[in-house]
Amino acid sequence: MKAVAVVSGGPDSMGYAAVWKSRGFAIHPIVFDYGQKGKKEVEILGRLCPKLGFEKEVRVDLSSLSRLWPNTQLTDPSIRVESEYARNVVVPLRNGVFLMVAAAYADSLGADHLLYGAHLSDSARRGTGGEPLYPDCTPEFASALEDAVNKGRFSGTPIKIHSPAIEGLTKDRLLRMAYDVMGDLIFETWSCYLSGDVHCGACESCSNRRKAFAAAGIEDKTRYEH
Length: 226
Hints:
Elements lengths: L1 E5 L4 H12 L3 E8 L6 H12 L6 E4 L32 H16 L3 E3 L4 H4 L15 H13 L8 E3 L8 H12 L21 H13 L10
Helix pairs in contact: 1-6, 6-7
């Protein structure tokens, strides 16, 4: 059984792929360079994939797309990376772009399962009845994209999109499951929005990482600058 996994080098996507590996699937990772400031995640991923027993990762250069994503913290050099959530930390439809490319790879590979690391904490809504923090992380988005993917393919076994959010998992519950199969390798993952020698410890993603390990009851052995 084959599964294509959209991975970033972070604990969510790498951990979810590792969980699926433990379920008996051959994991075919696909990673994207989209001009992100935290490009170190790609380097980290290259070291982790063989340790986790994944197939050789496919790297896709979409760095020119950074021109289509101005005014976002992760791609625009003129925009500061903040310590708390702000709407401009969201790269518009990034997961949609990645998943559609990954679906084409899965179709060519004969893989019926497509994984990405979106969890329920990303789908949380701002205020009562507000919009999701990350709209392209919701189960509803994944379901709609899955429908579009299969409408654009020849008939046969449909490709199923899977995520922790679809399985009802928050970030801390996902980390607990991932730690159970990865052990201390989970601390080699990369969450930081920047590319320093160690995690900056100040950006929103580093903060979410620390909080999730604490909520999961796991001693965080990540090295942070701050």
